[in-house]
Design goal:
The protein is mainly alpha-helical. Helix 1 packs antiparallel against helix 2 and helix 2 packs antiparallel against helix 3.
Length: about 240
C-alpha cells in the first residue's frame, strides 16, 4: 500500500468522524494538513532507516565477497599441496560466501528502489502539502469574510439599528428642548443682544433714506428759486 492511499484512509476516517460531529471547515483542513505533515515525517524516517540499512548491507556484502576471494585462494593452495579434501571444503565455503553476497546485493537493490520511491512520494506529498496550506489560508479568509457578513446582516435585520436611531432622535429632541428653554429665559427680559443690533441697523437704514430724501428736496427747491431771480432783474 502506497503512502498516499494509506494517508487517504487515515484522513477519510478522521474526516468522516468530524463530519458526523459537525466540525467546522477550519478544523477539517487543519486535520488534513496535520496528517500530511505527520506522513512526511514518517516517510522521511522510514527512508532514513532504509538508507542506513542499505549501507550496512553493502558493508556485509563486501565482506562476503572478500571472504569468497580468500576461500578461492585457499582452495588453490590446498590443491597445490595435494589436499583435495581441504580444497573441496574451501570451494564449498567460497560458494556459500558468494551466495550470501548475492542475497545481500538483492536486498540492497530492493531497499534502493524503496528509497527512490519514497523520494518521489515525498516530493509529491510536499507539493500537495504546500497546495493544502495555500487552500487552507484562502479558506480561512473566505470563512472570516462570510462570518463578518453574517454578523453585519444580523445587525441590519435586527431592531438594534432602528433602536439606536430612535435614541438619537430622542437625544436631538432633548437638545432642541434645552435650546428652547434658553430662548424662553430671554423673553420679557428686554431686548436681546441680537434684537438691539437689528434695531441699530434699522435706524441706520432710516437715517440713510432720510438724508437721501433731504438732498433730493434741496435740489428741487434750488431749481424752483432760480427763475424768480431772473424776472426781478428784468424789472
Amino acid at each position: 500500500m502506497g503512502i498516499f492511499s494509506r494517508m487517504g484512509d487515515i484522513i477519510n476516517s478522521n474526516l468522516n468522524s468530524m463530519i458526523e460531529k459537525a466540525e467546522n471547515p477550519e478544523k477539517i483542513t487543519r486535520l488534513i494538513i496535520q496528517e500530511m505533515e505527520d506522513t512526511l515525517v514518517e516517510v522521511r524516517t522510514s527512508a532514513a532507516r532504509n538508507i542506513a540499512e542499505t549501507k550496512e548491507l553493502g558493508r556485509k556484502a563486501d565482506q562476503y565477497e572478500a571472504r569468497s576471494k580468500e576461500w578461492a585462494a585457499k582452495a588453490e593452495l590446498a590443491l597445490t599441496k595435494g589436499r583435495e579434501d581441504l580444497a573441496r571444503g574451501a570451494v564449498s565455503a567460497k560458494q556459500q560466501s558468494e551466495q550470501m553476497a548475492e542475497v545481500l546485493r538483492k536486498e540492497i537493490e530492493i531497499l534502493k528502489e524503496a528509497v527512490s520511491k519514497a523520494d518521489s512520494d515525498l516530493e509529491k506529498l510536499q507539493s500537495k502539502l504546500n497546495e493544502a496550506k495555500a487552500k487552507h489560508k484562502a479558506l480561512m479568509m473566505r470563512g472570516s469574510t462570510a462570518t463578518n457578513q453574517i454578523k453585519m446582516r444580523k445587525v441590519m435585520t435586527s431592531n438594534k439599528v432602528d433602536d439606536a436611531l430612535q435614541r438619537y432622535e430622542r437625544v436631538e429632541r432633548k437638545v432642541d428642548e434645552l435650546e428652547a428653554h434658553v430662548e424662553a429665559f430671554d423673553l420679557g427680559n428686554g431686548q436681546s443682544l441680537e434684537s438691539q443690533f437689528a434695531a441699530l441697523e434699522a435706524d441706520d437704514a432710516v437715517e440713510a433714506e432720510l438724508t437721501a430724501l433731504k438732498k433730493s428736496l434741496g435740489r428741487s427747491v434750488s431749481k424752483a428759486t432760480k427763475p424768480a431771480k431772473k424776472v426781478a432783474a428784468n424789472k
